[in-house]
Design brief:
The structure is a homotetramer. Chain A is an alpha/beta fold. Helix content of chain A is 35%, strand content 18%. Chain A contains 8 helices and 13 strands. Chain A has an 8-stranded parallel barrel, surrounded by 6 helices. In chain A, β10 and β11 form a beta hairpin. In chain A, α1 packs across α8. The longest helix of chain A is centred in the first third of the chain and has 18 residues. The N and C termini of chain A lie close together (10 Å). The model of chain A has no long low-confidence stretch (mean pLDDT 95). Chains in contact: A-B, A-C, A-D, B-C, B-D, C-D. At the B-D interface, loops of B face loops of D.
């Protein structure tokens, strides 16, 4: 029952300087709160609501930036993969490969990710029950790699809305794998703005508190210095300056909950 | 930001002795945890899944027992009403009238309840959005009675299952009325056992923790000395002996959350 | 496998002349289409979204108008009841008592309705699975009255929206009771306009066709000569002048489906 | 308003002889019913519930069999693709590329499929609103290929269940692209049998009738000579011998509906 780890960063990589700045400030906030920190950022947004959404800077430049964050800030890094043949090259640079929610049932991607030996954070599909994730994890584990995290990020609830079922956290924990709560995508309003997804930033903090009170191994929060002008997920990213106080409160809750 | 109040008791009244025993033990547990306590029990289960379910001991005997609990244990009492003409006689005995979730849109019941001047705990219908409760509360408030509580008890999620949307708590709080989280009915599996409702008692504690971490004015938990043989809601009632520890943990969380 | 019956009328009674006009024109449209016709109208809207919504003209005047429709137009009439003690007086005038969806689990109301010996149309609650309606019907049948109709009117689907699950029709038909499809309330957007419910009139016809193609005993459609100025459910009522063509098409489908 | 086309075949290819037999019999049934016919089968099940599920015979052998069906039975063929680089080789053999529901937001796959110039059948994700499919179709159309079909196959409804929202058919039709109703996967119970998905074969016919009554360009039905022993989707496949009668009835409905 160690303190929760923080997985945080911008939704997508924008530039090397921007990534280093964010990683540095998030690392400091995490240190202050006494939580381990994994920097998260995407180099490719492969499933935007519409073609008009920015795709990202691409794998080559993205991996260079992630390597720089790892080397210069000294923190582990996480990024998401969308095709089996990306897993090996990405795993040479990053510590944690993330399987996107829409792709959590794609067997080849899960196997390729597992074979890298990297830690694998699997987002639960919006269309899956929490107990269905045992079969998903088993696909990765069949490669001999059991460094698996299972991540709740909201379940489909009518159209253009997700709901965070907090029962999912203990249910997924029955697998024995650490459970992550993604407070950012849980408050997404998918497709809710016509050609992009909306979000409800104001619920990130209460849902993160709820998840920590239930008990989680890690909390996933996207943060940005200027969320309203970020190229993706702006409506649900937390302003960078709000992170230290948010983490302080989550950490205190986590301590209390884990001390029984 | 006072500590949360505890609304607790058996699902339905069984006998005077049983009610007094439960009230006494729950009052002690609440005192130990430093929470105010309101005894809850129903004298009539007016909407059982099937006719085979026990209806309850009736209004006359029920009110006598509730009056006894009030007088002998010295705690306020809450019960639910199902028809407008029951509101006045029930309000002569109880402190809080509760509007059942299925009935939360019945204007006459809300007005009759409001006119008694008693506090009114309105369960949010499983079919309602949290923001829809502002109109519901306004019906009661139109009587001049603003002693209103709004209670989350789960939203319909597919068939025979509810989901607790923790966003509902801050959304309902925007009305200015205190918000209650009903941890017992939120884990109901409505109709899930053929002629009665199932439940998932194991999620009462984590969901109650989640709600307290989000921030609530009161927590509603049904408890019983022998839940597996209780005449209703057994599958989701908490064993009486588990209450002191559950309350202790919730109270510590509540303190932390409300101290900021 | 007789042709479907039509249950139609305005959402609420407005005046005697208005009711007679609507009943007369709907009866003619039904006759043209070769369907039996039951006039439907409410004298009391007991569960409006907000207090600001019009309640209706009341029981006394309402029953007079329904009696007039029955006598002068020569058609059976249906209205909804909201309290056990209304069942007997209403049943003296109307042919079919309707149990509102929110109230479909209220045992006393079901028993009182059943005891009148009138036919009982039970709306399926938005919060119920279709198989749960067997227990609901059994409550009425316990009175010895098996003149029961079970009516699908949409299931909760996220917030402020319903979905029509067409599987509900054959599932409810397994009870042996005739099944009704309410094409008007199935397209309601409950609470979707702040203090009233919105609706999607454009889907009444396709959903009614779908239900008839699956197979139903009756179709329920609210119609109005000026739906945009009706006191309730305007957004989902069908303009009166569209009814003859809608019925003609439904009747042709029904014939085809029932001829196998 | 031509008669609906039939997209039918087994869930996955089993052998050349089996595919030819099924294609031949389905072609005959379609001819009898007067509907155009597209043979559908998968060579790879890339997203089985668990690793224990059979993956399929692979692309090379699969394409040989599909080419044989095309040549020997003289019908167009459809298969699904799971990776961008599969699109071109598959499109050399098949007439229609299908985008799986879980993958309907993967931009690279949609673009690669579009660039082949083949017709593209896009399954609507279980997590998407019908109006969100306009953005999805636009991704394909951006390649200059507008030979697009949009396919309803059920929306997430709680856990382990889908619901067919018939409103989705006219909503998707607003894009101007032909709309397909997949009656087989709409009755899937995803993950509902532990390590595989369950299904409700008995609802294929009523839901197909409902969709045809609403109005569709094509109906998708998986069929098998021995569904209970099929390697995948057995619980929701229709027995081959039931197809002629099912098609006859759907065709009669379709005629009636499209004649107005």
């Amino acid at each position: 029952d160690r303190p929760f780890a923080l997985i945080a960063g911008p939704c997508q990589l924008e530039s090397r300087d921007h990534a280093l700045m964010l990683a540095e400030r998030l690392a400091r906030a995490a240190e202050l709160a006494g939580t381990r920190f994994i920097f998260k950022a995407s180099y490719d947004k492969a499933n935007r609501s519409s073609l008009a959404g920015k795709r990202g800077i691409g794998m080559e430049e993205g991996l260079e930036i992630l390597a720089a964050v790892r080397a210069e800030i000294g923190v582990p890094v996480l990024t998401d993969v969308h095709a089996p043949d990306h897993c090996a090259p990405v795993a040479e640079v990053v510590d944690v490969l993330q399987i996107p929610a829409f792709l959590c049932r794609q067997t080849d991607l899960l196997l390729a990710a597992g074979r890298t030996g990297a830690a694998i954070n699997i987002k639960k599909g919006q269309f899956l029950a929490p107990w269905d994730m045992a079969n998903v994890a088993e696909k990765v584990a069949s490669t001999g790699n059991t460094r698996i995290l299972l991540c709740e990020r909201g379940a489909s609830f009518g159209y253009n809305m997700l709901v965070s079922d907090m029962r999912a956290l203990p249910i997924m924990a029955r697998t024995g794998y650490p459970v992550v709560f993604d407070a950012t995508h849980s408050v997404q309003l998918p497709g809710g703005q016509g050609t992009s997804s909306g979000g409800q930033r104001e619920f990130v903090a209460p849902l993160a508190r709820a998840a920590v009170a239930v008990g989680v191994a890690a909390v996933f929060i996207e943060a940005h210095d200027d969320p309203d002008h970020a190229p993706s997920d702006g409506p649900n990213m937390v302003p960078l300056e709000a992170m230290p106080e948010l983490l302080r409160r989550l950490r205190a809750l986590d301590d209390l909950v884990k001390s029984g």
